[in-house]
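Sample 3 of the quickstart, ligand 2'-deoxycytidine-5'-triphosphate:
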Amino acid sequence: MTGGNQEGDQSVSLDLLKQKMASFAKERDWDQFHSPRNLLLASLGFYMGSPFFHLAESNIRNCDVGEVGELSEIFQWKGEVPKGLPGWKEDEKVHLGEELSDVLLYLVRLSDICGIDLGKAALRKVELNAIKYPASKTNNGIAGSC
Ligand SMILES: Nc1ccn([C@H]2C[C@H](O)[C@@H](COP(=O)(O)OP(=O)(O)OP(=O)(O)O)O2)c(=O)n1
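Result:
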């Protein structure tokens, strides 16, 4: 595959997602709703009567659960889930991909609206994590412990 970062390519950049979300909002005149607070509530939830309305399935409804809540619902009551999700139906995996994407897309949009370069910030954080938790000093099998 050639060209890089178009639909169907193997890798998708945060920048492409940022541009797509910006176009999506602009085409619908939804920039007015994409404030930092609204985007945070849309991703995390904690609806408390915010004036954040959006169109969905031809209805106007409140933003309530939040995408992280919707993501959590998929795992709710399942107990520990083995890596690779053995036994999950294909449509369950597709649904999981959709909810993960909603969380990512709102974070990308929130970062953009706040003027944060999410890719650079995340890369810097990975480096900070490595300094905070040196591999040489980490106890085997105990996550987050040095
Ligand atoms: N004001 C809005 C509304 C939606 N979206 C985009 C970002 C998310 O990727 C997706 C969220 O849409 P819904 O709120 O309809 O959530 P779901 O797709 O999860 O639908 P449902 O909650 O019915 O399962 O659409 C957006 O950018 N701005």
